[in-house]
Each structure stands twice: as structure tokens, then as C-alpha cells.
Specification:
Layout: H1 10-33, H2 38-42, H3 44-56
Helix pairs in contact: 1-3
Amino acid sequence: MSKRKVYFSEDQFETLFNFVSEHVDSLVQASIDYNDSEILNANESLLDVHEVLEEASKWVLLEDDDG
């Protein structure tokens, strides 16, 4: 399987991570409020993205861009 590298500034990463996290939190709350797991099933891709971003948030790979 090939891999793709994407580089974000710390601000860009935080913005994306927070955006996705807020939407996932909203989906989870709606699923609980309506007792409807289909809400989560229908948004499985977003949950997968959140999982990847959450793991990436643990990495320390900050580099200065001199070029």
C-alpha cells in the first residue's frame, strides 16, 4: 500500500483537528440523544479521519521551513 505525506503548519493542523473533533463530538452527542447508532455508521469516514488525526496529534514532528 502506498502512503501519502501531507504537511501542515501547527496552526493548520490544530484548526483541522479541532474542526473534525467538534463535528465528531456533535455526531456522537446526536447519536446518544436520538439513541440512533446509524448516525455514526453513516459518518464512519469522518470518524476514521478523526482517529488518524488523533493519533497524529501525539507525534512530535515540528520542523522549521527554511526553504
